[in-house]
Amino acid sequence: MTLRIYNTLSREKEPFSTLQPGVVHMYVCGPTVYDKAHVGHAMSALVFDMVRRYLTFKGYRVIHAMNFTDVDDKIINRSHELSEDPFALAERYINEFLQLMQELGVLPATYYPRVSEVIPQIIAMVKGLQEEGFAYEVEGSVYFRVRRFPAYGKLSGRKMEDALSGTRITSSEGKEDINDFALWKAAKPGEPSWASPWGKGRPGWHIECSAMCYYYLGEQIDIHGGGNDLIFPHHENEIAQTEAFTGKLFARYWMHNGMLQLRGEKMSKSVGNLITIDAFLAEHEADVLRMIVLSSHYRKPLAFGEQVIADNERALARLRSALRPGRGQVQSGTAVNALHAQMDATRAGFEAAMDDDFNSAGALGNLFNLVKAINAARDAGVSSEILGTGQDMLRSLAGVLGLRLATSANDHEADAGPFIDLLLSLRQLLRGQKQYALADQLRDDLTRLGVVVEDSAAGSSWRWAA
RNA sequence: GGCGACGUAGCCAAGUGGUAAGGCAAGGGUCUGCAAAACCCCGAUCGCCGGUUCAAAUCCGGCCGUCGCCUCCA
After folding, report:
1. C1' (B3) to CA (A232) span, angstroms
2. 3-state SS of chain A?
3. Which positions on chain B have an atom < 7 Å from some protein CB?
4. Nucleic strand B under 7 Å from the C-beta of A375
5. A92 has pLDDT over 70
6. Are the C-beta atoms of A420 and A365 separated by less than 8 Å?
7. Is the CB of A113 under 7 A from strand B?
8. Looking at chain A, which residues constitute the CATH 3.40.50.620 domain(s)?
9. pLDDT at A66 over 80
10. Strand B closer than 7 Å to the CB of A173?
11. How far from the centroid of its chain's Cα atoms is residue A380's Cα?
């Protein structure tokens, strides 16, 4: 089966192939580290984590770079507010971000380049662009000459003339053209700056990604990703810089995730409808957020809110319900055949869905069908061994999506197991003597401690509440 | 104003030509001392209008609505 990916560049799904056989070079735009990351940032990270995991599942080796923008106006402003060194501040938020990614189960990138580490490379690139006439200097700043790059606008579908009709562009800062953008900014007092052929200064916003991508992954890459709010101007400008510099196609596939919405609006600092990742994780499991992201297509806007969180918490519990052991001994027959048939259907359906531009919602639907089949088989008395083959498949496919289905019982809780078993056998004696009031109280008490007790014809069982 | 995306049952959400996956919620049932869990049953003709076609949620056109970008943004 062939993977197809929607390419923002062509606005179509295209068959996926790589520049180098079996290897995917992927660059994803990371955050500007001037504040706590919110669940919208997490969505982007989770989407591309899914992409990466699936590519790996398909047999590719994925070389994945995600940058940190640690030189930026917002960071500088923040450092002045807090009287903290801008690099220390950035370092703090980078470490926090990496920690949160780990908690979310996002696989570490191969490279985490930072702007501050590639200043010489950035200068070399800007200089190269200037020598070729793609850039010019104005009072210590260097701008990209958009008119020298006719393909400008190919990603966003924008025409340069459109900018003129906009009402929000105010000053042109001595630029030749209103569409030109800064590659290098002359230093202002109180800002971090580096020596350059144009005097002291710092990089513009877009050149950093071009430079980091170029030096870490090469002049051409397979996948370039990020939020769809970056299409213009950020990615458009990246294309202009890199392709002007190399004379080659920059990225073959441009992937953009939709925005996470809270109360019908994009979650963003300016709107003030933020939920930080750590605030979310304080109340919910990491995989709940992943379920929310997976339950919708990555390119669509993602509805977020209490209702959605609660729904997905239960959906996750349902996925896990299939992992409970069987109690019967049935080894063959219609129940077993039905399970095997659904396993085949799920394996094929899962891959077909994911091959279609990472349709994770469709893939999840296939997983739920397997859940139903496993549970039905258990109810029909199918043995734990046979149930286990279906459960292994469920675990493995869920793992491709990055879901960890194991409940989070820690060592301390594991130690309690034998004692809970003891209490349950005691309760079984009470039930045998129809001492239901006492038995129910014991069950209620255990529930309060996070232990769910379930009675069935075959006896009682318990598990930690999700 | 320009560019782009979206509009499927109470909510979330797949499905891009042959009469609508899945999850959550609600209702009915099986099981059970009760409860819980699980299982079974139960719901939409796909924003509106027109067109193409033997056949459209799915293609084309128009309209309405929502959202994103055009300034920092995952």
Report:
1. 10
2. CCCEEEECCCCEEEECCCCECCEEEEEECCCECCCCCEHHHHHHHHHHHHHHHHHHHCCCEEEEEECEECCCHHHHHHHHHHCCCHHHHHHHHHHHHHHHHHHCCCCCCCECCEHHHCHHHHHHHHHHHHHCCCEEEECCEEEECHHHCCCCCCCCCCCHHHHHHCCCCCCCCCCCCCCCEEEEEECCCCCCCECCECECEEECCCHHHHHHHHHHHCCCEEEEEEEHHHHHHHHHHHHHHHHHHHCCCCEEEEEEECCEEECCEECCCCCCCCCEHHHHHHHCCHHHHHHHHHCCCCCCCEEECHHHHHHHHHHHHHHHHCCCCCCECECCCHHHHHHHHHHHHHHHHHHHHHHECCCHHHHHHHHHHHHHHHHHHHHCCEEHHHHHHHHHHHHHHHHHCCCCCCCCCCHHHHHHHHHHHHHHHHHHHHHHCCCHHHHHHHHHHHHHCCEEEEEECCEEEEEECC
3. 1-6, 11-16, 21-25, 31-40, 66-74
4. yes
5. yes
6. no
7. no
8. 4-279
9. yes
10. no
11. 39
Distance of CA A288 to the CA centre of its chain: 13
Interface predicted TM-score of the whole assembly (ipTM), two decimals: 0.94
**What φ, ψ does residue A55 adopt, rounded to 5°?**
-60, -40
CATH no., domain A306-400: 1.20.120.640
Domain topology for A4-279: Rossmann fold (3.40.50)
Query: Which nucleotide's C1' atom has the smallest distance to the CA of A169?
Result: B71
Compute the distance between CA of residue A164 and CA of residue A155 in angstroms, rounded to an integer. 19
Q: Which of A60-64, A273-277, A344-348, A459-463 has the lowest mean pLDDT?
A: A459-463
What whole-number percentage of chain A has pLDDT above 90?
Answer: 78
CATH 1.20.120.640-classified regions of chain A: 306-400
Q: Which of A222, A233, A57 is nearest to A160 (CA)?
A: A233
Does the CB of A456 fall within 7 Å of any strand B atom?
A: yes
